[in-house]
């Protein structure tokens, strides 16, 4: 599609780089911005810049935060001996929205996926192992999506954790989450039940044999 302006072409191309947005949607968004007061575009631009420059990853759990240590990790009322391992920040938000979980988290930053060239060293697995080694942790909940990559990552983490001479209880969320379903899309009731009714990880392995 030919655009009547090089500047329009530029902004459409940039917006279309965002996930889930095609050229038609990008054009609609660009034309919407054009109709709004210039201040709105300036506020949007500044918010994006502030976000990219100011956002941090928590030094402990790797959740995004405005501070070196996130509010969850710095909350003394949380159960710091209970660590829920998730794929990314969206999963933290999904579980937190239930209001039922009072432990802390560890965000891997992805899943092991040989097809995509993502290995253990590309994730925060080593930092998770250091937490387990250096902190008093009673239980690790593996709350990863019920996909092939999720199961691969779960099994890898299980093998690594059980290498410790003394290791915490390892559980996984009950499969109220459908096989192949992404955690972030699960409804709150299903997610709550999956967390509460979590099972020892060993049992989840036997089910796949």
Give a written overview of the molecule.
The strands form two sheets. Strands 4-3-5-6-7 form a five-stranded mixed β-sheet. It has a two-stranded antiparallel sheet with strand order 1-2. By secondary structure, it is α/β, with parallel strands linked by helices. β1 and β2 form a beta hairpin. The chain folds into two domains: 6-54, RecR Domain 1 (Helicase, Ruva Protein, domain 3), CATH 1.10.8; 77-208, Dna Topoisomerase Vi A Subunit, Chain: A, domain 2 (3-Layer(aba) Sandwich). The mean pLDDT is 89. The longest helix has 17 residues, at 38-54. Helices cover 43% and strands 13% of the residues. α1 (6-15) crosses α2.
Q: Count the strands?
A: 7
What's the CATH topology label of the largest domain?
A: Dna Topoisomerase Vi A Subunit, Chain: A, domain 2
Q: Which stretches of 5+ consecutive residues score pLDDT under 50?
A: none
- How many separate domains? 2
Look at the helices and sheets and give the structural class.
alpha/beta
Helix content: 40-55%
Provide mean pLDDT, rounded.
89
Strands in their spatial order, largest beta sheet: 4-3-5-6-7
Beta-strand content bin:
5-15%
Oligomeric state of the chains in view: single chain
Give me a quick take on this structure.
The protein has 209 residues and is α/β, with parallel strands linked by helices.
Pick out its properties.
209 residues; 8 helices; five-stranded mixed beta sheet; alpha/beta; two-stranded antiparallel sheet; Dna Topoisomerase Vi A Subunit, Chain: A, domain 2; Helicase, Ruva Protein, domain 3; 2 domains
